[in-house]
Amino acid sequence: MLHDIDEAGDVIFLLSTDWFSTWIVSLGQWSGGQASIEQTKNVARRAASGILSEADDYYFVDLSPTRKAATFDRFVKELRPSLNERESRDFRTLVSSLTGHSLLSREQRWALKAVLIREMACGFGADAHAALGEGVVLAVIKTLELLGVGQIPFQPESRWDVELDRKFGGLAGRLEDYASSAYAPNVLLQEVARATCRLQYGPFDVELLADWWAGKTQELSMYVDPRSLTILLSECSELGGDS
């Protein structure tokens, strides 16, 4: 499995929390049952405990790329037998979403999210409806509302969540910031793609949508290559067709 070694630990920490597990389910990003969620969480907690190894602060542990890679690989190997084919696919998608293993950088995905939040706040102008289509607009609004308008606020649901958050004492809100900057934009992309699939958008429609979106991000002084966005939306649409 390909992943960004510098962020692999964050994937383990997020998946170990009751808070993030709840978000995965509520956003429709995990097709397995509660048992598979619990199993994933338990395996992640064992891996997280191994990383921290009684340390009071995360930044006192071994942060070398070699250690991070080894820990993540052990985590994946322990988890893999517990997941069926569809759950394994969901897990791979989650990891890719969080580590930025994508055609788009995290900054580009942030720009796409920012555009949709701004358009929603402005009521989606006529050009947005023309480019996105009413069905896509409704999907965006629903997803943004579930996200709390683009954010995944940290709401600890267990003692583990509270204690883990304290381990990042030097960076308050790190778990929330990471989920909101890395994960929330990808959820929005997937929901837009699923909506285009349901509405039976053709390749030309997707290209128009990508061009519109790329143009909007330039207004934020951030460039997104519309060709990459077209490819990504098409791939996500194919995934959405299996949901």
Describe this structure in words.
With 243 residues, the chain is mainly α. It contains twelve helices and no strands. The protein has helices at residues 5-16, 18-26, 34-52, 65-79, 85-99, 106-121, 126-132, 134-146, 159-166, 174-198, 203-218, 226-240. It is globular, with a radius of gyration of 18 Å. 38% of the residues are buried. The model has no long low-confidence stretch (mean pLDDT 85).
Question: Averaging pLDDT over every residue, what do you get?
Answer: 85
Largest sheet descriptor: none
Helices and strands: which structural class? mainly alpha
Distance between the termini: 22 Å
User: What spatial form do the alpha-carbon principal axes imply?
Assistant: globular
Query: How many helical stretches?
Result: 12
Uncertain residue ranges:
none
What is the CA-based Rg, rounded? 18 Å
Strand/helix succession: HHHHHHHHHHHH
Strand content: under 5%
User: Helix proportion of residues, in percent?
Assistant: 55-70%
How many strands?
0
Task: List the SSEs and their pairings.
Blueprint: H1 5-16, H2 18-26, H3 34-52, H4 65-79, H5 85-99, H6 106-121, H7 126-132, H8 134-146, H9 159-166, H10 174-198, H11 203-218, H12 226-240
Helix pairs in contact: 1-3, 1-4, 3-4, 5-10, 6-10, 6-11, 7-8, 8-10, 10-12, 11-12
